[in-house]
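Q: I have 206 residues here and want to know how they pack in 3D. Can you give me a structure?
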Amino acid sequence: MFEPFIDELLRATVALFVVVDPLGNIPILLELTSSYDSSRRAKIFDTAIIGGAVLLLLFAFVGHQILLLFGISLHSFMIAGGILLLIISLQILIMGEEKWLRHAERDVSLYPIGFPLIAGPGAITTTMIAIKAYGPFIAVISIILVMLITWSIVRSTDMIYRLMGKMGLHVIAKIMAVFLAAIAIEYIISGVKSVTPAYQGLRIIK
C-alpha cells in the first residue's frame, strides 16, 4: 500500500533536490553573504528558504493559471529565468561579488538567493510537473523535504567558510558562477527547443 506512495515521493523529492542543488550553490551563497556576520547570514538564509518554499508552493498550485493569465508559456518562463540567471552569473564574474552587491543595493535574501538560486525556473518547472504527475499531496511533501534539507545545508556554511578560507571560497565561487552561466544556457536552450517546432509550424501555415 505504501510502496507506490514512497516510490513517487522519492522520485519527486530527488528530482527537485537535484534541480535546487544546494550543495553546488554553497560557494555562490557564501560569496554573496561574505560581507555579513554569521547571525545576519543565518537570517538571510532563513528568509531565502522560506521565500523559496512559498514561491514553489505557489507555482505548484496556481503556476499554470498565473502563466495563462499573462499569456506566458512554461517554455518562455524557462527562457526568461535562464536569461536572469545568466545576467547574475556574468555580473558576479565581471564585476565581482562586492561590487555587484553595491550595484544591486538590495537585500540578497529573496533575490537572488531565494529566487532564482534556490527556487529557480528549473525548480518551479519541476514542481509544476510533479503536481500533475504525482498529485498535490506528494508535491507539497517533496517541496517541504527539499527545503528542509536545503536549509540544513546552507545553515552549515559558516563551518564550510572556516574550512575553505576567503581566497579558496572566492576562487570556487568564480568557478561556480561559470557553472551557473552554463545552467542558465541550458534553461534557455531547453525553452527554445520546446517552442521552435511551434514557430516552424506557424511559418509552414503562412
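Q: Anything worth noting?
A: Residues 2-205 form one domain. The first helix runs from residue 2 to 20.
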